[in-house]
Design goal:
Blueprint (H helix, E strand, L loop, with lengths): L1 H11 L11 H10 L95 H11 L3 H24 L3 H17 L6 H13 L5 H22 L1 E3 L2 E3 L7 H19 L8 E2 L3 H27 L2
Antiparallel strand pairs: 1-2, 1-3
Helix pairs in contact: 3-4, 4-5, 5-6, 7-8, 7-9
């Protein structure tokens, strides 16, 4: 019992320089194979080149929560399915390491080196630690401290995106590019034209990563303009199409469908001419045609970007 307590103290003591320990890799592997969780292990700057922390034959990987791996050398390490939640991997060297299926949620990944690392099916946070902290500080009214975290988050997202692109994992790289642009927006003055424009680009296209947003916006605008045409009225063959309380429900419904058809034709700038706007419908049609031509061009750009990765 005393030996076990002494061993535990060794791993949890942040004052000990683990680099001076003889065969740290073998000791850590032996500790992992004991099956006991390894929370809070202090491995700052540890030399763990080629360490094997794979739980062979187990249904789950070993648990290494809240570990301090700041500047640790983990080159060529075998970390398949390792649960590293809450750990600090800040500036850790994970070049050519196997991180397949590893859990990196709540980890500090600022400055981590991942050249040649295997990153398939890694479990990432939707929002990295720095972004969450920055948002919390911004909500508490501390923009200066929040700005620092947002800058760190942008740097981390960019670093991860680049490594994922090199590894051919473009879907995940696209998600990190989106988060990178979001935290860049959060660094802009709160009530500025730049921030508003950036938000609109995110809303309409997810910074080029969400073609579905463009489609949904298009359908929404077509539906809204069709309803407005129905309220203000358009003309077909000299007859008015639009809301008429003197008509029955079926007649109004048919006019509404005609107005939606006119909205589609206007949005796509086809302009068949069978239905024409008049009065207030004219500026509305001009606005819809302008936005429609821009939106279709945007969709082509976003779609091509996604398909050519």
């Amino acid at each position: 019992m005393a030996a076990m307590h002494q061993e535990e103290s060794f791993w949890l003591d942040a004052t000990l320089d683990k680099r001076e320990y003889g065969d740290l890799c073998a000791a850590l592997e032996l500790r992992a194979r004991s099956g006991r969780p390894m929370p809070g292990f202090q491995l700052k700057g540890a030399e763990l080149n080629g360490v094997n922390l794979v739980n062979h034959g187990g249904h789950h990987g070993y648990i290494l929560h809240q570990a301090d791996l700041y500047r640790a050398n983990l080159q060529n390490a075998h970390l398949f399915a390792l649960d590293l939640r809450g750990s600090s991997l800040m500036k850790a060297d994970l070049r050519h390491a196997n991180l397949h299926c590893a859990d990196l949620r709540d980890c500090n990944l600022l400055g981590v080196r991942l050249d040649g690392a295997r990153l398939d099916n890694v479990i990432w946070d939707r929002q990295l630690l720095q972004e969450r902290k920055g948002r919390e500080l911004a909500q508490r009214g501390n923009p200066a401290a929040a700005l620092q975290y947002f800058q760190e988050a942008e740097e981390t997202y960019r670093n991860l995106r680049l490594h994922l692109e090199r590894a051919g994992l473009f879907e995940q790289a696209g998600l990190f590019f989106h988060r990178e642009m979001v935290v860049r927006r959060l660094q802009l003055p709160r009530y500025s034209a730049q921030r508003l424009l950036s938000w609109l680009v995110d809303l309409f296209s997810g910074y080029g990563e969400k073609p579905l947003n463009v489609v949904l916006f298009s359908l929404g605008l077509i539906g809204l303009c069709g309803l407005l045409y129905f309220l203000v009225g358009v003309e077909q063959g000299g007859q008015r199409l639009g809301l008429d309380l003197g008509q029955g429900l079926l007649a109004n419904l048919m006019d509404l469908l005609d107005c939606l058809y006119f909205s589609v034709v206007t949005f796509t700038t086809l302009g068949y001419g069978d239905i024409s706007p008049h009065g207030l419908a004219r500026p509305l049609a001009a606005f819809e045609a302008f936005v429609g031509s821009f939106t279709m061009a945007l969709f082509v750009v976003v779609f091509v970007k996604k398909m050519t990765r």
